[in-house]
Design brief:
single chain; 217 residues; alpha/beta; six-stranded parallel beta sheet; 10 helices; 54% helix; globular
Length: 217
């Protein structure tokens, strides 16, 4: 008998993790070997627990699921990634595809779709809930008609990390320590973010971070 697929589960709500774990551990070929409460912890645990599949929430503290997925894709290209989220949102869905996710599952359908999505990911097959397929086709047709490509990112990945931490209320020194960069570098990133996005202060920056799905309202 083949050993079960090793899974790392990342969600900042303990009750959600508990419920999802019950679903997964009920399957003989799936095993949750580690749990993370935020994206940064997920990246750290992925190195120690050596999972084959990581299931990520989109909105989490410190690093979002999307930010964590970028880190994981770079450090472990063979690692399978799934998003389990409450956001039925095309923006997040397309960004999930951009960072290499094998599937996008809504929490409201976890009891029916998550196990199937895990199996599909391990077979190197995509798993998309029905409305995302419609969104994919519509987006492809619109871009083909307009002759345009996927738009470039407004801010860099590092600037996005700084933006999220500022919006979460961290001080410049705390951000520098969390990201292992200097205070001056944090200040430069913050200035660049405000200029690029046309924002004036932390309050406007926080509102932008909520709209962008970097933090929860």
């Amino acid at each position: 008998m083949n050993r079960p697929t090793r899974i790392l589960l990342a969600d900042d709500h303990a009750l959600v993790r508990r419920g999802v774990r019950l679903i997964l551990d009920n399957e003989p070929d799936l095993e949750v070997v580690a749990e993370a409460a935020d994206g940064a912890e997920a990246v750290q645990l992925a190195r120690a627990a050596e999972p084959e599949l990581v299931i990520l929430d989109v909105a989490m503290p410190r690093l979002t699921g999307l930010q964590a997925a970028r880190e994981l894709s770079r450090s472990a290209p063979d690692l399978k990634l799934l998003f389990l989220t409450m956001y039925d949102n095309e923006q997040y869905f397309f960004e999930a595809l951009r960072v290499g996710a094998a599937g996008y599952v809504l929490k409201s359908a976890a009891d029916t779709d998550l196990v199937e999505a895990c199996h599909a990911a391990m077979r190197d097959e995509p798993f998309l809930y029905p409305r995302t397929v419609t969104a994919l086709v519509r987006d492809y047709l619109e871009r083909a008609r307009a002759g345009t490509a996927i738009p470039a990112r407004v801010v860099t990945e590092r600037e996005e990390e700084v933006l999220k931490l500022v919006a979460e209320g961290h001080s410049t020194r705390e951000i520098a320590d969390l990201l292992y960069i200097s205070v001056k570098t944090v200040e430069r990133h913050r200035s660049n973010i405000l200029q690029k996005l046309g924002l004036r202060d932390r309050q406007e920056l926080t509102r932008y971070a909520i709209r962008a799905g970097l933090i929860e309202p």
